[in-house]
Specification:
By secondary structure, the protein is α/β, with parallel strands linked by helices. 40% of the residues lie in helices and 21% in strands. It binds adenosine-5'-diphosphate (ADP) and magnesium ion (MG). Residues 38-40, 73, 76, 78, 80-81, 134-137, 165-167, 195, 197, 237-239, 285, 287 line the site of adenosine-5'-diphosphate. Belongs to the cation transport ATPase (P-type) (TC 3.A.3) family. Type IB subfamily.
């Protein structure tokens, strides 16, 4: 391609809100044979909501449990955290405190921004909170007025209760057993594409929150169009296998890799490159940046995380997966390889 063609290509990309970091990146995109998508915030909207809750083996009320869950999640930046906080706020009657009101905030804000946009003075933040990437959060909640008559009996001390939130790995690390009832419920919800967050107090699981993060409306069409162009499409996620498979099925994606910590996502990219294929990675989060950097073509979607944007070769400013196709087609056109 001539320098002029590259300039024109870059200009057309810019008009779609596609930022390309250099002519090399524009060139590489027409050779992509394998494309790997992150799930949360990339194929899904990244605005998860709690759609179902179940209490287990506890006399505590749902409100008490949600107070405990919120106490930890206010200190997490994870998208699941804002789903938990929003649900707690509504159940506890703080739903009106949204800045801007109604569904508007949850539709426009993302992750931590949602919790910041909301008044959180009803939450008593937990102490010594620890976020464990790909697993969950844990911390100590001081019994306060809202918990003073709580049937949740703190075991670890006169005042404090140890609260653990997260997935199976988190519970395994903490030595918290998962009953058959809990497991059955999660199995059900995960088959319905939900991600389950277990809430444990002391050594017992008292609740499971089922969280749904709907697919972006264009996701299925974009995956199909990529397959038609001869690309192998993969899904990688830190989420559990069952939810990942259920989501992949909806998108007709066959290649799935779940329960991946950030390092494992990058390993997956390198493994795919091993067969001499040009591999692209599409992602949005901090935990995608090693994979974005490892890929031949890293594509950061949406307003994304700064670290993801830095690691990527392409930045899609509009949160629209169609722009992945636009970028690839533009590269093919510029380098005369349109099929
Ligand atoms: P993804 O690749 O889907 O963005 P992550 O690696 O961020 O996934 O997280 C993987 C899993 O870790 C989540 O699906 C969830 O089960 C658990 N997890 C992580 N952070 C939290 C949190 N703050 N609250 C509850 N669960 C969490
Ligand atoms: Mg993500």
């Amino acid at each position: 391609a001539t320098p002029t063609a590259v300039m024109v290509g870059t200009g057309v990309a810019a008009s779609h809100g596609i930022l390309i970091k250099g002519a090399d990146a524009l060139e590489r995109a027409h050779r992509i044979r394998t494309i790997v998508f992150d799930k949360t915030g990339t194929l899904t909207r990244g605005k998860p909501v709690v759609t179902d809750v179940r209490l287990f083996d506890t006399e505590a009320s749902l409100n008490e449990v949600m107070h405990l869950a919120a106490a930890l999640e206010v200190q997490s930046e994870h998208p699941l955290a804002s789903a938990v906080i929003n649900f707690a706020a509504e159940g506890l009657g703080y739903g009106q405190q949204r800045v801007g009101g109604g569904a508007k905030v949850s539709a426009s804000a993302k992750g931590a921004a949602t919790s910041q946009a909301r008044r959180l003075d009803w939450v008593r933040p937990a102490k010594d909170v620890l976020s464990i990437a790909g697993k969950g959060v844990l911390g100590w909640v001081v019994a306060g007025p809202e918990l003073s008559r709580s049937p949740i009996k703190p075991k670890e001390g006169p005042q404090d209760a140890k609260v653990v939130l997260g997935n199976k790995q988190m519970m395994a690390d903490e030595g918290i057993p998962i009953s058959k009832a809990v497991d059955d419920y999660m199995r059900d919800m995960e088959a319905k594409c939900c991600t389950c967050v277990m809430v444990a107090v002391g050594a017992a699981i008292v609740a499971v929150l089922a969280v749904t993060d709907p697919l972006k409306p264009e996701a299925r069409g974009v995956v199909a169009a990529l397959a038609r162009r001869g690309l192998a499409v993969h899904l990688v996620t830190g989420d559990n296998w069952r939810t990942a498979r259920a989501i992949a099925e909806q998108l007709a994606i066959i290649n799935v890799c779940a329960e991946c910590l950030p390092g494992a996502k990058a390993d997956k990219i390198r493994q795919l490159q091993g067969s001499k294929k040009v591999v692209a990675m599409v992602g949005d989060g901090v935990n995608d940046s090693p994979a974005l950097a490892a890929a031949d073509v890293g594509i950061a979607v949406g307003s994304g995380t700064d670290i993801a944007i830095e690691a990527a070769d392409y930045v899609l400013m509009r949160d629209d997966l169609e722009d992945v196709l636009v970028a690839i087609d533009l590269s093919r056109k510029t380098f005369n390889r349109i099929r």
